[in-house]
Amino acid sequence: MQTSFEIARRPQGEEIPLRDALRVGATRRITHAFLSYHSLSSLAFPVSLIVSELVTNAIQHSGGTAVDVTMQHQDDLLYVGVTSNVPGDLALRETSDDAENGRGLLLMTVTVGGLDGTWGVSDDKRTVWCLLPTQGKAR
């Protein structure tokens, strides 16, 4: 499954347009449908969280104009990849206890680890991906 959408190019720090912000919820719904179709509904919450964080990061930080979301289920593994048309550097950020944002990558890392999965960044630095087992502990 692959879905692609355009986003507005905007300077870092500028508010995200509503049209782009709504893409996160739409992508979550697509994720739920994909997982349901593949009888993986038990993974709906954690995978939707991962997808939401990665799509939000792509919209918020990439500086690009397009986002692609890819999911593939094969051989008891679920691949999730979120690609921006602009390469970027991914880094965990230090946040204060009362910060309202800045924990998305940490949340994604903990969620992937809790599912015994792995994640990484493509060589061209455009895609953040994770690979999750769909049998055993993850189910």
Could you describe the 3D structure shown?
With 139 residues, the chain is of the alpha+beta class. It has a single domain (2-138), classed as 2-Layer Sandwich (Heat Shock Protein 90). It contains 3 helices and 5 strands. It has helices at residues 18-37, 44-61, 104-114, and strands at 2-6, 66-74, 77-84, 118-121, 127-133. The chain has a 5-stranded antiparallel beta sheet, with helices on one face. The chain is globular and about 45 Å long.
Give the % helix.
Answer: 25-40%
- What is the H level of CATH, i.e. the homologous superfamily? Histidine kinase-like ATPase, C-terminal domain
Q: Beta-strand percentage?
A: 15-25%
Average per-residue pLDDT, rounded, comes to 88
Low-confidence stretches: none
What is the tally of beta strands?
5
CATH topology name: Heat Shock Protein 90
Helix/sheet category: alpha+beta
Please give the order of strands in the largest beta sheet: 1-2-3-5-4
How do the SSEs run, as a string of H and E?
A: EHHEEHEE
In angstroms, what is the radius of gyration?
15 Å
Q: Biggest sheet: strands, sense, closure?
A: 5 strands, antiparallel
Distance between the termini: 21 Å
How many H/I helices? 3
Tell me the CATH architecture: 2-Layer Sandwich
Bulk shape: globular
